[in-house]
Amino acid sequence: MTTIRFIGDVHGKWRRYEKLIRDSSRSIQVGDFGIGFYNPRTETYSRPPFDSMARGDHKFIRGNHDNPQQCSTHPFWIADGACLDDSIFCAGGALSIDKHLRTEGWDWWKDEELCYSEFLKLAEAYEAAKPRVIVSHECPDAVVTHVLSTKNMYKYYIPSITRQFLDNLMYIHKPDLWIHGHWHFDHHTIFDGVEFIGLGELSYVDLEI
Questions:
Q1: pTM reported for the whole predicted model
Q2: Which of 75, 119, 137, 207 is most deeply buried (CB count within 10 A of its CB)?
Q3: Which long-range contacts (C-beta less than 8 Å, at least 24 apart) are formed by 181-184?
C-alpha cells in the first residue's frame, strides 16, 4: 500500500498547489488543473509548475477547465481510461455550465466532454479492470442529485453525457471508493454501497491505496 494525496480543483493557482505537494511524495489532482488557458494580453498559455511536480510522483486528470489537446502532451497527465497500480481507474472531463460566457480556444474547449465512442472504449476498459478506486473530475448523476438534496442545493438542469456515463459505470461494477472534484465543495457520502469523497477547490485527502 502507498499513501496518495488526492487534490481538488486547482484552477491555475500554482503556488498553493506547490505547497500541497511539497510534503507529499505522490499525488493525483482530480481535474480543472488549469492547463492551457490563454492570456491574450501576454499571448501566453498557463503552465503548471512542472519542476516541482517532477520532484515526486505528482499527476493530474483532465477537467472541463483544461485544454484537452495540451493535456495530451504533458508527461504528468493521466489519460482517460488509465488504471494505475491495477486498482485506480481514471476518467476526466465534464460539462461547463457557463460555456456561453467563455471563449473557445482561450478558456473553453468543445471537446471538454468525451464523445460517445470514447465513452464506450472507457466502459470496456473499466469492465475489464474492475477497479477498487475511481478518480474522476465529475460525479455520477444520481450521486450529484443525492448529495445536493442533502445540502438543500439544486442542480442546473443541463444534460451532461459525462454524468450519465458515470452512472452507467456504477451498473457495470461498483468500486469501493470514488473520488471526484468539479462541484467545489467537500463531501463524504455512502451511496449505493460506494464511498464517495468530493473535494472542493484545493482541498485534499491523504489515503492509503
A1: 0.95
A2: 137
A3: 181/8, 181/9, 181/30, 181/31, 181/32, 181/63, 181/137, 182/9, 182/30, 182/31, 182/32, 182/63, 182/64, 182/94, 182/137, 182/138, 182/139, 183/139, 183/144, 183/147, 184/9
